[in-house]
Amino acid sequence: LWRRFEFISRIYWLECHGNFQRAKSSIGALLHDRVKTEKDLVNVEDMTLRLWVAEVESVCFGPDTPRSLMSIRGLQDEAQRLAQRLAQFATQQASIVAPQADSDLQRLAVLNRINPPPAATPDAAALLGAAPTPPAIGQAQRQFCPSCGGKLEPGAKFCSHCGARLTQAGEN
After folding, report:
1. What is the 3-state secondary structure (H, E, C) of 142-172?
2. pLDDT of residue 170
3. DSSP strand pairing (37-61 vs 4-27)
4. What single-letter DSSP state applies at residue 25?
5. Does the model's pTM come out above 0.70?
6. pLDDT value at residue 112
7. Shortest CA distance to 17 belongs to which of 42, 46, 51, 53?
8. What are phi and psi of 22, to 5 degrees?
9. Mean pLDDT across the stretch 5-27?
10. Cα→Cα distances 12→9, 68, 120, Å
11. I need a surface site. Which of 2, 14, 25, 47 has the fewest CB within 10 A?
């Protein structure tokens, strides 16, 4: 009786089935944003999550003897609690490709504060529903881009804001 060892073990079995996809997402304009971010995403769709929890009692009579199985009990309440916690955790994970979590919206708000959309670019004007302002006539046309209205560097061949090719007076 003194060399009897009783063990109670808990076994967790987690089974996941679904479609696995991998993607790369980048946020931030290439030419004029100060902050850019990039993320590798793993997407599992139509996932089925199954979780089993069992408690196993075993006994052995000495340190070098094999264990004998005494009983196995399923712990349904523990399995349901843990499955709900895992499902809740999965729905709160951020994925900027399909923003649906609160953390996605918070991250986008921070990025928009750091990189405000330039009001003079055609893309920003289209997003805001307004037409871009036409460039001024004469001397100002050489100082501002005819496509987006952004300020030009002296002698520039391309606009640093929108990337449009600039034509000098007399060129076609």
Report:
1. HHECCCCCCECCCCCCECCCCCCECCCCCCC
2. 47
3. antiparallel
4. E
5. no
6. 73
7. 46
8. -125, 135
9. 84
10. 10, 20, 58
11. 2
Whether 172 shows a pLDDT value over 60: the answer reads no
Query: Which amino acid belongs to residue 69?
Result: L
Contact 138, 149 (CB under 8 A): no
Determine the number of helices (DSSP H) and then strands (DSSP E) in the chain.
4, 3
Q: Which two tokens stand for residue 25?
A: 């997402």
- Give the side-chain half-sphere CA count within 13 A for 83: 18
pLDDT tens, position by position, 38-58: 777 777 677 788 899 999 999
Reported residue count of the chain is 172
pLDDT at 71: 95
Distance CA 160, CA 130 (A): 22
Strand order in the sheet with 4-27: 4-27, 37-61, 68-74
| HSE, side-chain direction, 13 A CA sphere, residue 20 | 2
